[in-house]
């Protein structure tokens, strides 16, 4: 890493898998999806929320509660250590909606798909911290209207802070993708953006991702082993 000064790290569900949080598309777990008989594409859309809000709110209330019982693992801790010690620019762009990077101590974290511990008021656009159930239709602490939904980027919605992400990529010398299947865009396209910019690229994933051929180097195995070894 001697010639590397600025790093963008993309993380996905695989980085939190060993903390006990289910991934979205693990074909080997016999379920091939996240929640009972529902595919993630069927509950994580604005159309699903409009059609059956109770189903969608129950789904997110259950996951918000579950995430609060989980703890960061060795991969989160290694990235937090890198963040604390790295003197150049560094940005952890996570697709994850859990807060395990932050609880491990990482500071330079950007949640492009939202955060479980926030709600979003569709009436006044506030994003209050929210750890309780949304199924009871609580009032927004800012405007008082019962218009809170999960602050999660659903399919067809624009991921957050894309300009910041592309600006960081433009400055980066290294792009590292950790624990993501490369199935969901625009994050799945970052490796190609990085290649076009002439940035070095590295994949750390349990198995080859859908985009693995685009990386200069790919290492396969559990994140709790690969990430600390890479950071050292
Ligand atoms: C381990 C491990 C261990 C396991 N160690 N590794 C056709 C072509 C191209 C694009 C599209 C298309 N049709 C539609 C689109 C766009 C769409 C999309 O990409 N769809 C695909 C399904 C094709 N994307 C969008 O809609 C996005 N918005 C958008 O494009 O905006 C522009 C736009 C705006 C308006 C109109 C039109 C366009 C938004 C995407 C939002 C994604 N949201 C979710 C929300 C979930 C809700 C929730 O959290 O409940 O984000 S979906 C879900 O997937 C979640 C994740 O962040 C995301 C990525 O998943 P991730 O993290 O990669 O997890 P997995 O499970 O897929 O992979 C885990 C990996 O870890 C695996 O490889 C394992 O092997 C590995 N692993 N254990 C290391 N221990």
UniProtKB/TrEMBL annotation:
<feature type="binding site">
    <location>
        <position position="63"/>
    </location>
    <ligand>
        <name>substrate</name>
    </ligand>
</feature>
<dbReference type="InterPro" id="IPR029035">
    <property type="entry name" value="DHS-like_NAD/FAD-binding_dom"/>
</dbReference>
<feature type="binding site">
    <location>
        <begin position="179"/>
        <end position="181"/>
    </location>
    <ligand>
        <name>NAD(+)</name>
    </ligand>
</feature>
<feature type="active site" description="Proton acceptor">
    <location>
        <position position="113"/>
    </location>
</feature>
<keyword id="KW-0963">Cytoplasm</keyword>
<dbReference type="InterPro" id="IPR003000">
    <property type="entry name" value="Sirtuin"/>
</dbReference>
<comment type="function">
    <text>NAD-dependent lysine deacetylase and desuccinylase that specifically removes acetyl and succinyl groups on target proteins. Modulates the activities of several proteins which are inactive in their acylated form.</text>
</comment>
<dbReference type="InterPro" id="IPR050134">
    <property type="entry name" value="NAD-dep_sirtuin_deacylases"/>
</dbReference>
<feature type="domain" description="Deacetylase sirtuin-type">
    <location>
        <begin position="1"/>
        <end position="232"/>
    </location>
</feature>
<keyword id="KW-0479">Metal-binding</keyword>
<dbReference type="InterPro" id="IPR026591">
    <property type="entry name" value="Sirtuin_cat_small_dom_sf"/>
</dbReference>
<dbReference type="Pfam" id="PF02146">
    <property type="entry name" value="SIR2"/>
</dbReference>
<dbReference type="GO" id="GO:0070403">
    <property type="term" value="F:NAD+ binding"/>
</dbReference>
<feature type="binding site">
    <location>
        <position position="124"/>
    </location>
    <ligand>
        <name>Zn(2+)</name>
    </ligand>
</feature>
<feature type="binding site">
    <location>
        <position position="121"/>
    </location>
    <ligand>
        <name>Zn(2+)</name>
    </ligand>
</feature>
<feature type="binding site">
    <location>
        <position position="223"/>
    </location>
    <ligand>
        <name>NAD(+)</name>
    </ligand>
</feature>
<keyword id="KW-0862">Zinc</keyword>
<keyword id="KW-0808">Transferase</keyword>
<feature type="binding site">
    <location>
        <position position="143"/>
    </location>
    <ligand>
        <name>Zn(2+)</name>
    </ligand>
</feature>
<feature type="binding site">
    <location>
        <position position="140"/>
    </location>
    <ligand>
        <name>Zn(2+)</name>
    </ligand>
</feature>
<dbReference type="GO" id="GO:0008270">
    <property type="term" value="F:zinc ion binding"/>
</dbReference>
<feature type="binding site">
    <location>
        <begin position="95"/>
        <end position="98"/>
    </location>
    <ligand>
        <name>NAD(+)</name>
    </ligand>
</feature>
<comment type="similarity">
    <text>Belongs to the sirtuin family. Class III subfamily.</text>
</comment>
<dbReference type="GO" id="GO:0036055">
    <property type="term" value="F:protein-succinyllysine desuccinylase activity"/>
</dbReference>
<protein>
    <recommendedName>
        <fullName>NAD-dependent protein deacylase</fullName>
        <ecNumber>2.3.1.286</ecNumber>
    </recommendedName>
</protein>
<dbReference type="GO" id="GO:0017136">
    <property type="term" value="F:histone deacetylase activity, NAD-dependent"/>
</dbReference>
<dbReference type="InterPro" id="IPR027546">
    <property type="entry name" value="Sirtuin_class_III"/>
</dbReference>
<dbReference type="InterPro" id="IPR026590">
    <property type="entry name" value="Ssirtuin_cat_dom"/>
</dbReference>
<dbReference type="GO" id="GO:0005737">
    <property type="term" value="C:cytoplasm"/>
</dbReference>
<feature type="binding site">
    <location>
        <begin position="205"/>
        <end position="207"/>
    </location>
    <ligand>
        <name>NAD(+)</name>
    </ligand>
</feature>
<dbReference type="GO" id="GO:0036054">
    <property type="term" value="F:protein-malonyllysine demalonylase activity"/>
</dbReference>
<feature type="binding site">
    <location>
        <position position="60"/>
    </location>
    <ligand>
        <name>substrate</name>
    </ligand>
</feature>
<keyword id="KW-0520">NAD</keyword>
């Amino acid at each position: 890493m001697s010639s590397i000064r600025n790093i963008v790290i993309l993380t996905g569900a695989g980085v939190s898998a060993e903390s006990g949080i289910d991934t979205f598309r693990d074909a080997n777990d016999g379920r091939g999806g996240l929640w009972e008989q529902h595919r993630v594409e069927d509950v994580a859309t604005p159309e699903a929320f409009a059609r059956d809000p109770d189903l969608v709110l129950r789904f997110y209330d259950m996951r918000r509660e579950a995430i609060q019982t989980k703890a960061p693992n060795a991969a989160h801790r290694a990235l937090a250590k890198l963040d604390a010690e790295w003197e150049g620019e560094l940005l952890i762009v996570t697709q994850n909606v859990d807060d395990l990077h932050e609880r491990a101590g990482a500071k330079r974290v950007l949640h492009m798909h939202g955060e479980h511990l926030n709600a979003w008021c569709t009436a006044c656009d506030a994003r209050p911290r929210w750890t309780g159930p949304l199924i009871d239709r609580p009032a927004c602490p800012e405007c008082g209207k019962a218009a809170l939904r999960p602050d999660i980027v659903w399919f067809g919605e624009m991921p957050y802070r894309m300009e910041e992400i592309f600006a960081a990529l433009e400055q980066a010398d290294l792009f590292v993708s950790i624990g993501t299947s490369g199935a969901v865009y625009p994050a799945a396209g970052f490796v190609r953006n990085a290649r076009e910019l002439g940035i070095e690229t590295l994949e750390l994933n349990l198995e080859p991702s859908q985009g693995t051929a685009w990386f200069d180097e790919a290492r396969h195995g559990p994140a709790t082993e690969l990430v600390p070894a890479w950071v050292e």
